[in-house]
Design a protein that fits this description.
Pfam families: HEAT_Maestro (PF21047), HEAT_Maestro_2 (PF23210), HEAT_MROH2B_1st (PF23221). The chain has about 1250 residues and is mainly alpha-helical. It is built from 64 helices and 2 strands. The protein has a domain of about 120 residues. The longest helix has 28 residues. The radius of gyration is 55 Å and the shape is elongated.
């Protein structure tokens, strides 16, 4: 019932509101009747009134209830003193808040289109005062919690309606009571909002500001405490409280700006982070909101903020940067102290910035982005015609500590200057010249912008362009540059716009900058200006430390300045100055050398004279004035090393320029040539001291490397070949340096630099002699491959930096070796095989890291040969078989990376052979590449797959190469590493399968003997299997050579021999070939030669061995097809041998064959062996019924007796006739017919016995079977 009642009440309220939208007067009149004096209205009626008050807003229509605000207030006001319960207090508060809010709004700005209001300002003030008295005197002292918050909310809305005199009378009491509420548990937002309404109502009339002044300190302290309160993102009231407090400061700002500034400065004097943050936040709000009223305190504000920055007491940057942005937007940065703010802003643009306190909502990147955006806002200041802080910003262009801020500063200055020029302000006219102590000099600004332009493409050039408009009466740089820069700088800017950092060629771009500087110097043609610029370059070049190119490139500007000069004395003086400067860093020496070489292109003679004087410092007995005194201060070995290194670099660069002149061609004076030769002689005299000093050695090697690189490049571009007579001597010296390096430690780049020198020399003639090249390769291989494993070298490093240096040094060293090997290949491709031959000892090393390095080099060499642009068909690998065997075994190396590298090396070698073959057929290189890409082989195919390697290369081997491959593969069979031995076996069997017939005849017995001898040493099953397969393929292709060798093994055979014979029956082709040869041996009749001491018994040993072989071969299931194919001839041959054995009965007591039996292994005699061969033949052919038949009829006993032998033949014949098909019998008859009239008595009798028995049995058969057989016969 209660829920139903509530639904009815809500529905009734909704109906009243709906009716009120259309008939507001009638609804208000009805409500007035419901309100009785001294009686509280129903709660639901008050709710309806509260809903109707909301209809007064603009969103509810054309201000429906606005004309009835006074009437509704009159309804509610009499019942207000009767309220006692919190529920009624809250609903009355909602009603009165709405009435006061809309009354205040409509009195200030009457709504258009609405009826005339029923309330005036005086009546509203009276109603508001009465309402205030009830709330303040009755509710305020006792209200708590939600009621107090609602009370404060209503009172705050009443302040704007109440009269000023009324507020004056209650001001101090109100302020005291409101500030007291901050100590209670209610939400401070309602207190702050009420206080903000009070302050706004009072300060609308500034004459009452003095009365408020008495409580100003308490108000400021309370409001500041609200700003300092930590806010929670999830607590909206706490955030609104802080916003209201800041708005209260904005209300106080126009009247009490000096008092507020003094209060805030006092708060910022301490080092408390929260107070500093709050004070900065208040300052930002006050400055942004009331800029026109800040004239008295703006300088104090800027100085206060500057003091915070100078004392370094700030902890959080966010409010400080936000305040600086506000100051920038208000134009305060040009005030005293503003430079400190700008300096702080610039420093925050650097990345990484200063440490941000943990827990801050801004990280370093956010600070930098915000600072850069603030800097960009400065370009908008000019729109408001404020003073532009361009002078401050210009001071940050030249200092090197602002490297990362350079781009945003340049962009900002560029925009400022361009807008200033368009507006006719031109703030920079002549300032650089009139105030040199405050602003950078033109020379400093020019060199800074040019250096930064060398790797920051765009911003600095834009600024340079903006700094020098043609119509400027007092240009920044020099008055003679206007027309030149008007032409050149737009061209450079256009060049940049057509490229990005990916497509822009840095060297080409730097050349354009050098050309700009040089042409500028030529346009100025002022020695004093040029000297100041040169001095500025020397000063600034020592300060660059972040990147090596920052040190290197300024020296090229120095050289460009001297190159443009026409004063020879000045050129010599400043060349001497730059040579006397400190050269401790490599980048500095490189830069000085590049400057010297640039000057030498126009002042070559003067340059050589200065170098002649400079090298005299190396000689303590030098008589050159001035230089000898310098030498006295350079006694340390390190300084001597720096001098020698610098001189070497200068000499190589100047020689480079000399070669350019000779090739272009331009003549050089004879005197200049002699001076250069003299310098080279003095340079060579210092080389003998290198061994004693590592630093000198490295400096020498780097200079020689630079020299040989440039000379080699020139020689390569020249039309005529240049002979370099010192090439052999330099290579020999490099070999000596490499050999002197320890193979147990890699601590310096000596061997690396030496190999780079050799690589550079490949472009020069004459080529190295074979013995010199052999010494070089052996030395380099030993020096690099013998180094400890990389893991060991890294483990010995003391820290991460040392580990990175060691790893980098090793990588550079191995790359230098690779470059040298490829260079030797390019120099003479036909000697690639020789280069690989010297790697063989390292490819079979027992140390994994040595094999891996050698295999990496092998793969790179073969890849280089395969990728030669002009492939030479004369490239030969005469030892191809040995090389393939070596690489194939490495494809099964225990180290997986070696297998991978070996597979790639094999593939590259295969590509070489394929290219050679296609080129010899007349195909072009394009078609060769197509054929190669369509090939069936790839590195992945060769990975761990020796058989595929054999198939790929089989067609390319000559007989000699094939033989070498087979013989060398034998050595790998006994390798203790199982994978290698298996790989050798697979390679041997695969290559004999593919090309076994091409093996040289006289090496077949060596191959077979080698395999047989190693069988007893190998017990790994897979390897043995591959060896047996190899013999099988060898016998199939070389039957007449292999079989006699195997038969010659002494009887009884060992297990290896029997296993060999047994495996010969596993492959049909081999089995057929071997069986045919064995049959031939059995069919031969022993003949005693005249005058021979050999007996018949001894001659019969070979047929006996044949029967032993048959016993083994025919016992394998795989031989059935071959046995059935040769069965008639084989049967007759074996039976004929049985007859001869039992009649001659040779070697009665000699066991020739081991047979497994129930009692173990036993030796049997030749006759038994022959019978065993017959049994094995029948079993191997699959004729088990014949075998059983003969056994049942005692056929074996009959065959073993000389007197009953033919009876045994008849039993075998009976069995075959009974169980064979007519076709099989026909085959036997065909074999018997030639023997019926044989000259050999035994054969004739045996064949007739066969024939007679067959005819007898056939007569007994059915007529159809007899007719079928006779038709076949």
């Amino acid at each position: 019932i209660k829920e139903l009642k509530e639904e009815f009440e809500e529905a009734a309220i909704a109906i009243i509101v709906a009716v009120g939208k259309h008939c507001p007067g009638e609804v208000v009149a009805t409500l007035q009747e419901r309100f009785q004096s001294k009686v509280l209205p129903l709660h639901q009626v008050l709710c309806a009134v509260e809903k109707l008050c909301q209809l007064s807003g603009r969103l509810s229509g054309p201000y429906v209830m606005a004309p009835y605000i006074g009437a509704m207030w009159d309804c509610v006001l009499p019942a207000l003193p009767l309220v006692e319960s919190e529920e009624y207090m809250l609903v009355f508060s909602d009603v009165l808040r709405g009435l006061a809010k809309y009354a205040s709004r409509y009195l200030a700005e009457p709504p258009q289109g609405a009826k005339k209001l029923d309330i005036t300002g005086e009546t509203a003030a009276a109603k508001a005062y009465v309402t205030f008295l009830v709330f303040f005197n009755k509710w305020f002292p006792t209200a708590k919690g939600k009621v107090m918050e609602a009370t404060l909310d209503v009172i705050g809305q009443l302040f704007s309606i109440m009269s000023v005199q009324t507020l004056k009378n209650h001001l101090q009491c109100l302020i005291s009571q409101l500030l007291h509420q901050y100590g209670t548990r209610i939400q401070h937002f309602y207190v702050t909002e009420c206080l903000c309404h009070l302050l706004h109502a009072v300060l609308c009339h500034q004459k009452w500001s003095k009365r408020l002044y008495q409580s100003l300190d308490n108000i400021l302290s309370s409001l500041f405490a609200q700003v300092c309160t930590k806010t929670d993102e999830s607590d909206m009231l706490s955030k609104c409280n802080q916003t209201s407090a800041l708005r209260a400061f904005q209300v106080l700002g126009p009247v009490y700006q000096e008092e507020i500034m003094a209060f805030l400065r006092k708060q910022m004097e301490g080092s408390e982070e929260v107070k500093c943050t709050a004070a900065l936040t208040v300052l930002r709000e006050v400055a942004e909101e009331f800029t026109p009223h800040m004239d008295k305190v703006k300088e104090i504000m800027v100085q206060s903020v500057a003091l915070i920055i100078q004392e370094n007491i700030y902890k959080i940057k966010r409010p400080l940067l936000q305040l600086i942005r506000s100051c920038a937007c208000c134009g305060y940065l040009t005030l005293p102290g503003g430079s400190v703010l700008v300096d702080f802003l610039i420093r925050q643009c650097e990345l990484p910035g200063s440490i941000v306190k943990h827990g801050s909502d801004w990280d370093e990147e956010a600070v930098q982005v915000y600072s850069i955006n603030t800097l960009n806002l400065l370009t908008e200041v000019i729109k408001r015609k404020s003073k532009v802080p361009w002078k401050m910003l210009l001071q940050f262009v030249c200092p090197l500590e602002y490297a990362n801020t350079f781009i945003p500063v340049c962009k900002t200055l560029t925009s400022l200057f361009i807008k200033s020029g368009k507006g006719g302000l031109s703030p920079y006219l002549g300032e650089l010249h009139r105030r040199p102590t405050e602003l950078p000099t033109p020379q400093a600004l020019l060199i800074r912008l040019l250096v930064r332009n060398s790797h920051l493409f765009g911003p600095a050039l834009q600024l340079l362009h903006a700094l020098h408009p043609l119509n400027s009466l007092h240009p920044v740089m020099h008055s003679d540059l206007g027309q030149l820069w008007k032409e050149m700088i737009p061209e450079l800017i256009q060049y940049l716009e057509t490229h990005n950092e990916g497509t822009l060629e840095e060297e080409k771009w730097k050349d354009k900058l050098l050309q700009l500087l040089e042409r500028s110097m030529e346009a100025i043609m002022d020695d004093a200006w040029s000297c100041e610029l040169a001095n500025e370059i020397l000063v600034k070049s020592k300060s660059y430390s972040q990147r090596p190119q920052d040190k290197f490139f300024p020296y090229k500007f120095y050289g460009a300045v001297l190159r443009a000069s026409r004063n020879r004395d000045m050129v010599r003086e400043y060349l001497s100055i730059i040579l006397r400067t400190s050269q401790q860093e490599e980048a500095e020496r490189e830069g000085i050398a590049s400057a010297i070489s640039l000057v030498a292109t126009r002042h070559l003679t003067d340059t050589l004279v200065v170098l002649q004087e400079f090298i005299s410092m190396m000689n303590p007995e030098s008589q050159v004035t001035g230089l000898s005194r310098v030498h006295s201060h350079r006694e340390s070995e390190s300084e001597r090393s720096d001098i020698f290194s610098l001189y070497s670099l200068c000499l190589s660069h100047v020689c480079f320029q000399m070669f350019l002149r000779l090739i272009e061609p331009q003549n050089v004076e004879q005197e200049t040539t002699w001076k250069l030769s003299d310098l080279e002689s003095q340079h060579a005299l210092e080389c003998d001291k290198l061994v004693e000093n590592l630093s000198l050695k490295l400096n020498f090697l780097r200079s020689v490397a630079a020299f040989t690189r440039t000379v080699g490049d020139i020689a390569q571009k020249a039309k005529e070949a240049h002979e370099f007579s010192q090439k052999t001597m330099i290579v020999a010296f490099m070999v000596k340096l490499i050999e002197e390096e320890s193979v147990n430690l890699l601590s310096n780049p000596v061997r690396q630099q030496a190999m780079i020198v050799v690589t550079n020399l490949r472009k020069l003639k004459p080529p190295l002699k074979p013995e010199k090249k052999a010494n070089l390769l052996r030395a380099c291989y030993k020096s690099v491959f013998s180094l400890p494993p990389v893991e060991t070298m890294l483990a010995e490093a003391c820290d991460n930096i040392q580990r990175q240096l060691s790893e980098s040094l090793y990588k550079e060293t191995i790359d230098a070796l690779r470059g040298m090997l490829e260079g030797l290949v390019f120099e003479c491709p036909v000697e690639a095989q020789k280069i690989l031959e010297y790697l063989e000892p390292w490819l079979i090393s027992r140390k994994d890291h040595e094999r891996e390095r050698a295999m990496w080099c092998s793969a790179r060499i073969l890849r280089c040969v395969a990728k030669l642009p002009n492939f030479d068909t004369s490239i030969e690998f005469s030892r191809l078989g040995r090389l393939v065997r070596l690489l194939a075994l490495r494809c099964h190396d225990p180290v997986d990376n070696i297998c991978f590298l070996a597979a790639r090396a094999v593939y590259n070698l295969y590509c070489i052979q394929l290219v050679k073959r296609q080129l010899k057929k007349g195909h072009g290189l394009t078609k060769v590449d197509t054929l190669k890409n369509l090939g069936t082989y790839s590195p992945s195919v060769f990975y761990n797959n020796t058989s595929q390697i054999a198939k790929a290369f089989a067609e390319y081997f000559t007989p000699l190469q094939l033989t070498n491959l087979v013989l060398t593969a034998l050595d790998g069979l006994t390798d203790p590493r199982g994978k290698i031995s298996r790989a050798a076996g697979e390679l041997l069997s695969a290559i004999l399968e593919e090309r076994g017939e091409s093996l040289r005849r006289h090496k077949v017995d060596d191959t077979l003997t080698g395999i047989y001898q190693r069988l007893s040493l190998i017990h790994e099953p897979t390897t043995r299997q591959e060896m047996l397969r190899a013999v099988c393929f060898l016998a199939g292709n070389n039957t007449k050579k292999v079989v006699p060798i195997l038969l010659d093994h002494p009887l009884p055979w060992d297990s290896n021999t029997t296993e060999l014979w047994r495996f010969l029956g596993t492959r049909r082709e081999t089995t057929l070939n071997v069986l045919q040869l064995l049959i031939t041996i059995l069919e031969e009749k022993p003949v005693q030669k005249a005058k021979s001491n050999i007996s018949d018994d001894e001659i019969a040993l070979q047929p006996v061995a044949v029967t032993c072989a048959l016993c083994e071969m025919l016992s394998t299931p795989n031989c059935r097809d071959a046995v059935q194919e040769l069965y008639p001839r084989l049967l007759l041959a074996v039976l004929g041998h049985v007859q001869r054995v039992i009649e001659q009965n040779p070697l009665e007591n000699m066991g020739v064959y081991r047979k497994e039996g129930g009692q173990g292994e036993r030796l049997i005699l030749p006759a038994s062996c022959a019978l065993e061969a017959v049994k094995t033949l029948l079993s191997g052919a699959g004729y088990v019924e014949v075998l059983d038949y003969v056994e049942e009829h005692r056929g074996w006993d009959l065959l073993s007796s000389p007197s009953d032998y033919y009876c045994g033949i008849m039993e075998i014949t009976s069995a075959m006739v009974k169980h064979f098909t007519p076709l099989n019998l026909h085959r036997i008859f065909n074999q018997l017919i030639p023997l019926l009239n044989s000259e050999n008595e035994h054969d004739k009798i045996m064949s007739r016995a066969f024939y007679a028995q067959e005819r007898v049995i056939l007569v007994k058969r059915l007529p159809t079977q007899q007719i079928e057989l006779e038709s076949l016969l």
